[in-house]
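Predicting holo structure, S-adenosylmethionine bound.
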Amino acid sequence: MTEGSLTLVATPIGNLGDWTPRGSEAVQRADLLACEDTRVTRKLLDHLGLKVEARFISYREQNELTLSVELSEQVQAGKHIVLMADAGTPAISDPGFRLVRECRKRGLCVTATPGPNAAITALAISGLPSDTFLYAGFLPPKAAARRRFFSEHQSAEYTVICYESCHRILKFLADAEAVLGAQRCVCVARELTKRHETVFSGPLGSVGPLVAQRSQKGEFVVLIAKASYEL
Ligand code: SAM
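Done. Tokens:
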């Protein structure tokens, strides 16, 4: 029996030009394609002109637990499974961790075709220190819990990276300013790699109003620098 594999294939976070040739190879040799929303992935592969023989299966938060056991058994049986998120790198604020863990526990081959990730892209272009950072993902939606998070990281000696939705971005920035102060240096990166990409770096007291004046449609990454940092 040949050895099976699990390959995490990163997909564009906005610009289709960021799809990788290795991503094409992986999906074309896959037996099974596990993706969050099969319609989104089919549409992407159609746009890319890729003919894919693999069976599609929806792998999402709700069925991750049971499906990760089932899929890892298939890898063990010699199948090549590709895991894709709707956008970006699977398992990073997206389903994937449980399947990877299950395959690792069984000593199976887990690999990746690396590519787009909103957090690392924003960090790299932010102008905030990129040597040491904490990836926090989505903060709690409730204001009190979010403010607690800011207090706990008030004296952090590293850059904190958060994801935020368009609905909460202004509340996020207001809470951050209330706890960390108007002088704290941040970066707000919106719609990375897309036509309306906007990146503001500077003190919260200046960046907050700039974000508020513009459209808040789209997707956001917010980075918070250590207290001593000035741009
Ligand atoms: N797995 C993805 C990755 O590798 O970046 C993250 C998926 S998470 C469900 C979606 C969040 O990522 C969005 O709410 C936003 O915070 C961030 N994001 C994704 N694409 C983005 C983009 N083009 N510009 C800014 N933020 C983005």
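The chain has a mean pLDDT of 97.
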